Amino acid sequence: MTNYLIRRFFQMSLVVIAASMAIYFILWLAPGGPLDELRMAGAGGRANQGFTEEQIARIAEYLGLHRGPVWGYIAWLSGEDWFDDIGRADLQTSSCRSVESTCSRGVLRGDFGVSWNVARGSPVGDVLLSRLRNTMILMVSATVISLVIAIPIGIVSAVKQYSRLDYFVTTFSFFGTAMPVFWFGLMMIILFGGNQSPLFKAFGFPYLPTGNVVLVRSPLPGSLLDLLNAIPGSTLDIAVHAILPTMVLSLLYMAGWSRFMRTAMLEVLRQDYVRTARAKGLKERVVVLKHAMRNGLIPLITIVVFQIPGIFGGATITETVFNWPGMGFLYVYALGANDYPVAMAFLFISAVLVVIASLIGDVLYTVVDPRIRLS
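Predicted structure:
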C-alpha cells in the first residue's frame, strides 16, 4: 500500500503540473483582459479617458502581466517574490517587498494573487472563501439526499426487476437524465417560487424563495416563511433559500445514481457467489445487503467520488438559474469580467480535487470489495 501511494502521489503531481500549465496558457491566449479594455478605451474614448502606452505598461507591471507567458507561469506557480531573490532585473522592475505590492507568493504556497475585477484588490483566497459556504451548503445537501434515496431505490428496483416500481424508477431515471438543468430549474421557480406560483394561487401552498441568499429582510408575507422576517440571514433563512436549488440538484443526481445502482445490482445478483449464498439458506435480506450490495457499490463509487470537485466547484448552471452566490456562479462571473486570477484559482483547485478524488475512489474499492488489492 505504501509503495502504491508513493507512486500515485508522484503521478498526481505530474497531472496537477500539466493541468496548471493548460489552465495558465489557455487563459493567457484567450482574447480580452484588462489591458485590452484599457487600449480600447484609449482608442475609442475621449481624450481625458484614454491611457497612454506608458500608463498601460505600468498597469501591466502592477498586475504582473509584463512578463511573457513562460516566466509569467513560473511566477504564478512559484511566486512573484521569487524573482527578487534571483536578482534578474529583466524579469521584474519593481520590488515585490514594498508595502503597495500586489505580488503573490505563488500557487504552491497557497497564494493566488489578487482579484482584478470581481473584488478588485482583494486576495483571491478571500474571494473564494466568501462563496465557499454557500456552495458547501448546496452541494453537500444535494449529495447526501441523493445518496440516501438513490441507493435504496436502485437496490429495490434491481431486486424487483420488471415490477411496477422498477418501471417507475426507470422512467424517472430517463426523464431526469435527459432533462436540461436550466429548464427544470425554471419550472421549479414557476411552480414554487414567489407569490405568483400557481400552487400558491390555487391551493395557498407556502411559496419558496428562488435562491439569492442575502442578509436582508425576506419579503414573504402571507406564508409560513414569515419567520424569516424576524431572522434574515440566519441558518433557517439560508436553509429555506436553499430548498429549490437543492431540490433540483437532488432529483437530477438521484435519476442517474439510482440507474447506476440498479444496473450494478442486476449484474451482481446473477453471480455464482450470490446463488451459493441463497443455496446455503441465508435470508434474502442478508444476501442482498451483505453479499451483493458491497460489490454493487463499485460502479457508483466511481461516479460519486468525482462529486468531490463538484462540492467545491458548485453547480454552475443551477447556481446561475437561482442566482445562488456560490462558487459556480463566481466562476461564470469571473470569466465574464476577465478576472483571470479568480478563474485560474478555481480551475486549479478543481484539478487538484479531481486527482485526489481518483485516489479516494481507488482506496474505497478495496473497502467495499476485499478481492481488490492495491499493489
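Summary: The chain is about 70% helix and 0% strand.
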